[in-house]
Design brief:
The protein has about 260 residues and is an alpha+beta fold. The chain has 7 helices and 13 strands.
Length: about 260
């Protein structure tokens, strides 16, 4: 496990279970990276994070930080990380898993979202620059004007039906992506799975992409909320869940990837 700040301080920020990647080779392929803006598990075999977890509050979603598009290798991973040449030609977007717009409060934290350890290949028009961006904006809206003071957000790829590999590092292109949103105060959780294809730019029916946490665990090979009592896991993970609503107008909720 590595961090660009005091590791104990970094880990204390993420006060719920870290996702647990199952599999015999997990110990050799996983690298945990902890930062102020996110904590992730980087997979050296796929050259993408298996999961990225954020802890969002309204104070972090508003601020002066600007997106600079300064994509670069993660200095905490060195040559293990993917790099910009893997994404040339631009067949797929360099898709943020922890969005830059989630770190508006601090320029350095915003800049750190552009490390390739936080990227996974995503279809551009109609997905990363379409419905996925709208989902990210929707989650920010839940915090800013939807009555959810604090949310944990876990995002990552699903490698069922992969689309091949790109670049000299052979970065695996996921078949779909998941996002899990947990409200620790209300003890509510909802999960989404969206196929990595051109869908469009509207999110009129979020419920069609809702998927149970148990199903996402099956699809990813990852255990979420592992230390929850079994009864609580059954109640919150096995049901399909319901997409939450928010006010139509929400100042500050919009933001780029």
């Amino acid at each position: 496990m590595v961090s660009d700040m005091d590791l104990k301080t970094c880990l204390q920020r993420y006060a719920i279970d870290l996702p647990f990647v199952r599999g015999d080779d997990a110990a050799t392929t996983q690298r945990i990276v902890c930062r102020r803006g996110y904590i992730l598990s980087y997979n050296s075999a796929t050259h993408s994070p298996d999961w990225v977890m954020e802890r969002l509050s309204a104070a972090e979603l508003r601020g002066p930080a600007k997106r600079k598009d300064n994509f670069k290798e993660d200095p905490l991973l060195g040559t293990v990380d993917a790099d910009d040449t893997d994404y040339v030609p631009r067949l797929y977007d360099r898709g943020h898993q922890a969005p830059a717009a989630d770190a508006a409060f601090d320029q350095n934290v915003n800049d750190q979202s552009f490390f390739f350890s936080n990227m996974s290949p995503q279809v551009g028009i109609g997905f990363n620059r379409g419905i996925w961006r709208v989902l990210e904006d929707t989650v920010r809206g839940w915090v800013l004007c939807g009555g959810h003071d604090e949310l944990y957000v876990i995002t990552g790829p699903i490698y069922e039906n992969p689309k091949g590999v790109i670049g000299h590092d052979k970065v695996v292109v996921p078949g779909s992506f998941y996002k899990i949103v947990y409200d620790p105060k209300a003890v509510r959780v909802v999960g989404f799975v969206l196929p990595n294809v051109k869908i469009g730019s509207r999110f009129d029916n979020p419920q069609q992409y809702v998927k149970s946490i148990a199903d996402i665990e099956t699809d990813t090979g990852i255990d979420f909320f592992k230390s929850w009592p079994l009864r609580q896991q059954q109640l919150l993970e096995t049901g399909p869940g319901t997409a939450w609503g928010r006010a139509e107008k929400c100042d500050g909720a919009a933001g780029a990837d």
